[in-house]
Design brief:
mainly alpha, 3 strands, 55% helix, Helix-turn-helix domain-containing protein
């Protein structure tokens, strides 16, 4: 059985609306990726690494960090370098 492509008719206004939505979403994604954090708190670190909270605590105990005002901060570049040497 051979299928034929479906043709969808859009007005100029509808086409422009779809193009603007796509452009907006792509621009938003690019903006978010360019603003990725250099310094992360624990929650950000857990979101950044593709392993569980417990796995980080159990297996990455010597992960480098910095304490500022009593809060631990992890530098993304240092975390990446650390993981590459493990």
């Amino acid at each position: 059985m051979q299928t034929r492509p479906i043709e969808i008719m859009l007005s100029e206004q509808q086409l422009t609306g779809i193009q603007n939505q796509i452009y907006g979403k792509v621009s938003e994604a690019i903006e978010q990726s360019s603003q990725s954090k250099t310094w992360m708190k624990w929650k950000d670190l857990v979101d950044y690494l593709p392993i569980s909270n417990n796995a980080i605590r159990d297996h990455l105990q010597d992960l480098p960090f910095h304490i500022v005002g009593g809060t631990k901060f992890y530098n993304k570049e240092e975390v990446d370098k650390y993981l590459l040497t493990k």
